[in-house]
Amino acid sequence: MASMIFTDCSTSTMSRLNHLNRLNGAFLPRPCVGKLSLPRTASGRGCTLSIRSSSSPSAIVINGKAEAKKIKDDIKIEVSRMKELIGVVPGLAVILVGENKESATYVRNKKKACEYVGIKSFELLLPEDSSEEEVLKSVSGFNDDPSVHGILVQLPLPSHIDEQNILNAVSIEKDVDGFHPLNIGRLAMRGREPLFVPCTPKGCIELLHRYNIVIKGKRAVVIGRSNIVGMPAALLLQREDATVSIIHSRTENPEEITREADILISAVGQPNMVRGSWIKPGAAVIDVGIKRVEDSSTARGYRLVGDICYEEASKVASAITPVPDGVGPMTIAMLLSNTFTSTKRFHNFQ
Ligand SMILES: Nc1nc(=O)c2c([nH]1)NC[C@@H]1CN(c3ccc(C(=O)N[C@@H](CCC(=O)O)C(=O)O)cc3)C=[N+]21
After folding, report:
1. pTM for the whole thing?
2. Would 20 be classed as within a structural domain?
3. Mean of all residue pLDDT scores within the chain
4. Edge-to-edge strand list for the sheet holding 120-126
5. Which of 32, 37, 132, 192 meets the CB 3.0–4.6 Å disulfide criterion with 186?
6. 226 touches ligand 1 (CB under 6 Å)
7. 110 is catalytic
8. For residue 119, what is the domain's CATH number?
């Protein structure tokens, strides 16, 4: 195939889903490949098919950026109160291995967000060819540092490093990403509570709550089964009393399943994979996918595209997250929230 990026919403279902084989997570190291040659619609989102007439209602746009700002403003107040009362400043350590351009953007955004709320950020940039031992050593340094309350190892790691070994090494009390197997295990068990819930899935649920979208008793479908988004998102929805299905690369007729979903979360990283016809009228649609697609008409030379064919979906859904300014900013807000929760726990602060 010339390009793996579906910018026109036109490729067949099976070839779309086959990409789940390789693209099994929303957070992928892949650079954007394939040159755009297809005409784009006025909105620039690249969808060319209209599902309903122009008189059809359009979905509420779930403004993740605005909700994230509210959350950050609340955290900012609490952080300053903590500093005033007990003299403690929350600390978040970020370990970045290698020079992934997209990772660098996220790390920069996290740092800015920390500055905004008053969380001290510790950044460690390790060279691409760092050994596993070196990364483990820095993790254990932060584990032992009392001024650090949260540790985040930016994923993906270079392929010569065993991700599991690194994630296992993060102290569960500082695992603000919620990726430690013990935290995930607890998330999967009834009657158990993880110390932290992964930020992106938590941000998705938070958006549903903030927009008063009922989860209890509803049918929820998650596309993608990655450890960091799809799987924990499904677990969280189940904990909220939804009836949950997970769609993955081996799922037959995925669109028949998504059409039953009152709540649809897509976390694949495959631009425009989910068509308007996959969506149940009135459904709430959360788009976790975020990919750079080459676009010479923009100043940066690319634009960000989600898994959901937004233009089509927004005519069918009742509520939908945009990309950007949907789930992305919420991920960062949840990271700050987890870091503050961790600091409160360490210092027994209410
Ligand atoms: N250990 C680990 N934890 C993560 O949470 C983690 C990670 N590794 N690796 C990379 C992914 C990706 N991720 C994003 C966070 C914010 C935006 C975000 O703020 N996006 C903006 C746009 C940013 C831009 O302009 O590029 C938006 O959607 O509006 C996106 C993606 C967290 N990740």
Report:
1. 0.88
2. yes
3. 89
4. 120-126, 91-97, 150-153
5. 192
6. no
7. yes
8. 3.40.50.10860
